[in-house]
Specification:
With 226 residues, the chain is mainly alpha-helical. It has a domain of 84 residues: Winged helix-like DNA-binding domain superfamily/Winged helix DNA-binding domain (Arc Repressor Mutant, subunit A), CATH 1.10.10.10. The protein is 49% helix and 7% strand. A hairpin with an 8-residue loop joins β2 and β3. The longest helix has 37 residues. 28% of the residues are buried.
């Protein structure tokens, strides 16, 4: 199935995928809840300020592309929206998790994806993340994720989703060199200490993000019933 999303449709779909896992008790989402999820300041890049009309247009577009259902529970006063992303594109849970983060946060390194997908799917290690990215980039019907040229000063390549088409090369990015220079060697102990410190920093960053997201979700829940 070939699809080409708008940026607004990408944000709305990413939010539906995320909230279905992180707050299943409030899912499916109403228009108001979808708008609040799109406009969160935590866990979003870029931060947006959609109004109801923008969100409704994106929801209509996703419905036309067969990527969501409109449901009307008997006890609900408003229509609610439920994605069907995995069924429409034949995606596994780890693939859905990776694409959700790419849709909501923009290009990511495999390490960033491993940390930021933890609430959606717990990967065993970077190797599993990289295997999922390879699978998404080599799909027979066209890639759903692509590796971006490495930016100057960055050690790792970043990946982006291709749901809006193949991303243009970012300003300042360089094509991968024909060969890699040999890195300077450090002692095993220093390398282990650096890796441990990096892991602690990543864990602290992840915990702060989770706290901010929980606060945003609580505020959105409060607004839903005001």
């Amino acid at each position: 199935m070939e699809i080409l999303l708008t940026p607004e449709e990408t944000r709305v779909l990413g939010c539906l995928v995320e909230k279905a896992v992180t707050t299943p008790e409030y899912y499916p989402l109403s228009l108001n809840a979808v708008r609040n999820a799109c406009n969160q300041k935590s866990g979003r890049d870029p931060v947006v300020a959609y109004d109801d009309a923008t969100v409704q247009e994106a929801l209509d577009g996703l419905r036309d592309k067969h990527l969501l259902w409109v449901v009307s529970p008997a006890e609900a006063r408003v229509s609610k929206f439920q994605h069907r992303f995995p069924e429409a594109l034949d995606l596994s849970p780890p693939e859905v998790a990776v694409l959700s983060v790419l849709m909501l946060r923009g290009p990511q390194t495999p390490g960033e994806l491993r940390g930021r997908t933890e609430r959606l799917y717990r990967f065993s290690g970077l190797e599993e993340v990289e295997a999922v990215l390879r699978g998404l980039s080599e799909r027979s019907g066209g890639p759903l994720a692509v590796r971006l040229p490495r930016q100057p000063g960055r050690k790792e390549h970043r990946y982006a989703h291709a749901l809006e088409g193949i991303p243009a090369q970012e300003p300042g990015a360089e094509a991968p060199p024909a060969f890699e220079t040999q890195p300077l060697r450090v002692t095993d102990r220093l390398a282990e200490q650096e890796e441990a410190l990096s892991g602690l920093r990543e864990e602290l960053r992840r915990l702060r993000e989770e706290l901010a997201e929980l606060r945003s979700e609580l505020e959105a829940f409060r607004q839903e019933f005001q």
